[in-house]
Amino acid sequence: MSANLIASLRLQCGGPRDGALLRFSLGSALLADGDAGAAIDELRRAVGFDPAYSAAWKLLGKACLAHGDEAAAAEAWRSGIAAATHRGDKQAEKEMGVFLRRLEKPRR
C-alpha cells in the first residue's frame, strides 16, 4: 500500500499541485516506509515551500532522529519552535519543545 501511495505522490511532484502539503505527505509516507533519508529530503522541500509549516518541521526532526542525526533533529525542532511561535501554534511549539528537551537531556 505505501509503495503505491509513494509512487502516486511522486508523480505529482513538479506539477501544478506541488507544494508544502504534497512534500509533507510524501515525506510522511517515506518515513512510515522506513526510508528516513528520502523523507528528510522531501520534508526539507516542504519547509522550503512554507518555512512556517510547523508540522513539517516536527516531522523533519523525527526523520533526522530516525536517520541517526541528532544535531539535525535538534536544529529542525528549533526552527519548528520558532515557526510555531510565530504562527501561534502552541501545541506544536510544546511538542517540539518536549522532543528537544528529551534529546538534550544528559544520558546516564
UniProtKB/TrEMBL annotation:
* Keyword match Magnesium: no
Instruction: Please state what the protein is called.
Output: Tetratricopeptide repeat protein
What keywords are assigned to this protein?
A: TPR repeat
Signal peptide residues on this chain, from the entry's feature table? none
Cite the InterPro entries for this sequence.
TPR-like_helical_dom_sf (IPR011990), TPR_rpt (IPR019734)
Do you know which SUPFAM superfamilies this protein is assigned to? Answer: TPR-like
The ranges of the TPR repeats are 20-53
Q: PROSITE patterns in the record, alphabetically?
A: TPR
Q: Which residues form a coiled coil?
A: none
